[in-house]
Amino acid sequence: MKQFVWLSLWCALLPLMLVANAQAIVLEGVGHASIHNEDLTTARAEARNAAMRDLALQFEAQVSTRDTMENGVLTESRMRLASSARARNVKVIDEHRSGNLLRVTVRGDISAGQASCGGGEAGRLKKRVAVTGFPLLYPEQARVGRLDDAGEILPQQLQQSLREAGSLQVFSASTFRLFPDLLNAPTLQQGTNQLTNVVQVAREMGVQFVVAGVIRDLGVADPAAWGTSVLDKMQRSIGAADMRRRFAVDLVVLDGFSGSPVYQQHFETAAVWNAGSGSSAGFGSEGFRKTHYGEAVAGVLGDMGQAVTDALACQPFMARITRVNGQQVTLDSGATAGLRPGDELHLYRSARYFDSLGGTPELSDSQVAVTLNNVHPDFSNGSMPRVGGQINIQRDDIAIIW
After folding, report:
1. Greater pLDDT, 5 or 106
2. Which of 362, 361, 357 is nearest to 190 (CA)?
3. Residues 6+ positions from 295 with CB-CB distance below 8 Å
4. How are the residues of the chain apportioned to helix, strand and coil, as percentages rounded to the nearest 5?
5. Three-state DSSP class for 310?
């Protein structure tokens, strides 16, 4: 009877185990980098990134080509190799140096990414994103290591990560503080008949999404371990003191047309703060990057960049209408976003009501599309089958590709 029960339980769990295994598998990736001027830290980071790419491409890879023809002659041919895999719990398991060549081997749990949207047209376009500052909730925690610049350096590093991914147009606003109430962010309190500051920032910068956040924790595990006495220094040198340091950040991606959050996530890590006295002078300094804590924070920043990319991959592409003249429509997006002559965008009317001017605008389908005729770097124009006044399409309405 026991054997029958165990057999039944095994048969019931086996499909779930197969599904779990299909969703995430453990793989090892290898990356190489050259060491220039004995800069081992930079080489290690480059080799780790190469190993991460190797991990992703082992799991799932996509190859796409693009050829350019002029007068029947091939003038340009490009090939792109990409993967939608996501890596978790990545650890460096081996590092070997041979002359000026560094080899790094990593191991991680690899699963399918969430960036696949069934091949929608919006997937080939680059949405505009502004990354604002990440202020510190408790600035006094930054005194150890002089990390006061974390609120500006972190978003700059996140911007760089998003630019390197290549799927978004990234705009910098790292000195801008989006939330006046850090404790309750990203909750926003709106005054009567006033738009949220998210919408204002998005409109001023001409972006579709705004990335913001708050650094919740930079504190050391045991403040007493960082005393200046001889005993404190001795305890740190022999490893008797708790030298761990925490890092916690809240990330939010907000829609620039409505001000509503489309993605929120809390990220955190902890590692040993092993910076020597005076060796760290800022969140992005070389001394910071060389610490175990700095390496752990770099890993979290990579996860944040991937999370933003995945969250926006399945969002529609939206462009604001800047001018309507008869049947001619001008949009505030162009070739840098990936738009091309002949592209068709559906037009939506944006409406606000007097009793809720500060609320989310309501979009209604006009059942009309604009076909682009001319595409410039930052704007484009095209024609629609009816006069704008007949269907009430006007400036500040929205054109969308799904």
Report:
1. 106
2. 357
3. 271, 289
4. 30, 35, 35
5. helix
132-186 tens-digit pLDDT: 999 999 999 999 889 999 999 999 999 999 999 999 999 999 988 888 888 877 7
Angle between helices 150-165 and 292-313 (to 10 degrees): 50
**Residue written as tokens 């001889």?**
230
298, 45 contact by CB (below 8 A) = yes
For residue 309, the tally of other CB atoms under 10 A from its CB is 19
Separation CA 311–CA 23 (nearest Å): 19
* DSSP assigned state of 354: G
Judge contact between 201 and 256, C-beta under 8 A: yes
Token pair recorded at residue 57? 């491409």
DSSP state of 202: H
Backbone angles phi, psi at 245, to 5 degrees: -135, 140
**Helix and strand totals (H; E) in the chain:** 8, 16
Q: Which residues of 324-336 are buried (b: 16+ CB within 10 A; e: fewer)?
A: beebebbbbbbee
328 membership: H or E segment, kind and range: strand 328-331
Note if the bond before 186 is cis, omega within 30 degrees. Answer: yes
Could you tell me how far CA 219 lies from the centroid of its own chain?
Answer: 25
Q: What's this model's pTM, rounded to 2 decimal places?
A: 0.70
What is the bridge-based pairing of β-strands 362-375 and 317-325?
unpaired
